[in-house]
Amino acid sequence: MKITINGITCEAKKGQTVLQAARSNGIYIPSLCYHDKTGVAGKCRVCVAEVKGMRGLQATCALPVREGMEIATNSEAVLQAQRFVVDLLLSAGRHDCIACEKNGTCALQDVAYYLHIERPDMQYDDAKTDIDDSSAFIRVERSKCILCGRCVAACNEVVVNEVLNVCGRGYGTSIVFSGERAMGESTCVQCGECVQLCPAGALIEKKSIGKARSWEITKVRTTCPYCGVGCQLYLHAKGGQIVKVTGVEDGSPNRGRLCVKGRFGYDFIYSQDRLTTPLIREKGTFREASWDEALDLVATRFQQIIAESGPDAIGGVSCARSINEDSYQMQKFFRAVIGTNNIDHCART
Asked: Per the count of CB atoms within 10 A, which of 29, 100, 163, 248 is most buried?
């Protein structure tokens, strides 16, 4: 179907919202509470627009498209309403963009820039300033929370951990964990989905704090090494050093979701305890050896065990960090070369 946005004829699909149709046609409509994974929200009222034939301003994230719709997203009435909402959000918190870890990747900052808001008209003196550092990997800064609800939807509807909720009313409303506990004392599993969907700086990866600004980072897409699911992720690197990991939203099979290991367990590659050369045990101690020497020793011991006790005396476990092709070759080696079916995989359920 065809709709018109700001005088431009756009293609839209049945079932899309106006916001989705605008984005698919490269038209920016400010939005803070909507995310593709959590669906219709209609809370922040920043994505409003004028629609011909409809009274008042409409939330485009909740408005289905229909043939021939005429939408205005840049009229003065729309911009004035958006400025009012964003100004209130900025006034009710402490959004220090210069020092914030989300500087450059913050949706609230983008909206304020789009609306030409340099500073809020007023500032509440009693804006929440508490920082919850109790969890292992996530910092909670409620002074930066805009109550968009995306983290709650991510926890309850996307990963279904059901830890986050909204508590209180009016100015006293806040995001809570397992019934107003500190995050580190709650049932949170630290998957970080709430961090991934937070549009502002309220939820931050603790390990990345102070490591790099967004414009200093190079993003590299890769596959998580921890299990056989094959989750797609981005490595955020500065100077060849990983400073943060995020899930690839458009990537199958995880669509941005990651477990605690995939999102936060990346610094093992820098451990000083990692082995960099083969070791052979002799008289109770290890000595360094070449790959040829180590592999020859393993082959000799395999042959000796098979000769003395038969092939079923040997068993193997393939590592989930290996690619599928390596696991296939390992089981082929055990079955066809050694002659045993004693082969397993650590990720098998």
From this structure: 29
- Three-state DSSP string of 110-151: HHHHHCCCCCCCCCCCCCCCCEECCCCCEEEEHHHCCCCCHH
C-beta neighbour count of 121 within 10 angstroms: 11
48 bridge partner residues: 59
The rounded distance, in Å, linking the Cα atoms of 18 and 37 is: 16
Looking up tokens 């390990």 gives: 207
Cα gap 53→158, rounded to integer Å: 36
Residue 228 identity? G
> Which residue carries 């920082």 as its tokens?
131
CB 64 within 8 A of CB 17: yes
The whole-model pTM stands at 0.84
Contact of 59 with 18, CB cutoff 8 Å: no
Tokens 């000799």 identify what position? 300
Residue 257, exposed/middle/buried by CB under 10 A (0-12, 13-18, 19+)?
buried
d(CA 235, CA 224): 10
User: What does pLDDT average to in each consecutive run of 10 residues of the chain (349 residues)?
Assistant: 94 94 95 91 92 95 94 96 94 89 95 93 71 95 93 95 91 88 95 96 95 95 86 95 95 91 93 92 94 96 96 92 86 96 81
CB 193 within 8 A of CB 158: yes
Q: Write out the two tokens for 170.
A: 């009016």
Q: What token pair was written down for 23?
A: 């984005």
